[in-house]
Write a structure and sequence with these properties.
Length: 85
């Protein structure tokens, strides 16, 4: 039996911007397949373990906005198997 499911960006990542759509109407998708790429803002924490990497720190310092946020990209993956309608 066919069913329809809707997916959304996790609430803690809102507001988000869709950057790229990875599927088209009629495509078959497997569980955990990426459907789209979205971008959201996260607070930059210079004390985090990630920030101890010098090259990463240099890249982040260029992309940190005036409020201390950086844009982070993530995949929205499907928990279902089926086709895109």
């Amino acid at each position: 039996m066919e069913s329809t499911n809707a997916l959304g960006v996790p609430r803690q990542h809102e507001p988000a911007t869709i950057v790229d759509i990875k599927v088209s109407t009629g495509d078959s998708v497997a569980k955990q397949a990426p459907l789209l790429v979205y971008e959201h803002k996260v607070k930059y924490d210079p004390a985090s373990a990630e920030s101890q990497d010098r090259d990463l720190l240099k890249a982040l310092n260029k992309s940190v906005d005036s409020d201390g946020y950086v844009n982070k990209r993530e995949f929205l993956r499907t928990p279902f198997e089926g086709s895109v309608a």
